[in-house]
Write a structure and sequence with these properties.
Blueprint (H helix, E strand, L loop, with lengths): L4 H14 L1 H14 L1 H14 L1 H16 L7 H10 L14 E4 L14 E4 L1 H6 L3
Antiparallel strand pairs: 1-2
C-alpha cells in the first residue's frame, strides 16, 4: 500500500463496489466502536463549515420537495457578496437564509438563479 497507494485505492474501491453489504456493516461497526469521537468530529466540521452544511441541507430539502437543481456553497457565498451581505427585502446586514423567488411548494427550482438572500424575519413572514 505504501509503495503504490493508487493501486491499493483502486483495489479497495473495487472491493466496496463488489461487496456493498459488507462495507456498510463495517462502517456501522466502526461507528458503534467510536461513536463519541465520530460525533465530535462531525460537530466540529459543522461548526467550521456552516455554509457547506446549510447548502447541503437546502439541497436535501429541495430533493424531498421534488424540485430540480442545486447550488453550491461557493455559489451561495458569491450571491451574498453580490448583495453586500444584506437582506434582499429589508437591507439588514446579518445572518442570511436562502429564500426561493418561486417557492419550492409552487414548483420553483433549487438553482441559484431562483435564490435570494433574506434575513430570518423577512423569510419567515412573507406569504407562501
Amino acid at each position: 500500500m505504501k509503495r503504490n497507494p493508487e493501486k491499493a485505492r483502486a483495489g479497495m474501491q473495487r472491493w466496496r463496489a463488489a461487496h456493498p453489504a459488507e462495507h456498510r456493516a463495517q462502517g456501522r461497526a466502526r461507528y458503534a466502536r467510536h461513536t463519541d469521537r465520530l460525533k465530535a468530529q462531525i460537530a466540529a466540521y459543522h461548526r467550521a463549515h456552516p455554509d457547506i452544511v446549510r447548502a447541503k441541507r437546502e439541497k436535501h430539502r429541495a430533493l424531498r420537495k421534488g424540485a430540480i437543481g442545486f447550488f453550491t456553497a461557493e455559489e451561495w457565498q458569491q450571491l451574498v457578496i453580490e448583495y453586500d451581505h444584506a437582506c434582499n427585502y429589508c437591507g439588514v446586514i446579518g445572518p442570511l437564509e436562502q429564500d426561493h423567488r418561486v417557492p419550492l411548494a409552487r414548483g420553483g427550482t433549487n438553482w441559484i438563479e431562483n435564490i435570494l438572500p433574506a434575513c430570518r424575519r423577512c423569510n419567515a413572514r412573507k406569504p407562501c
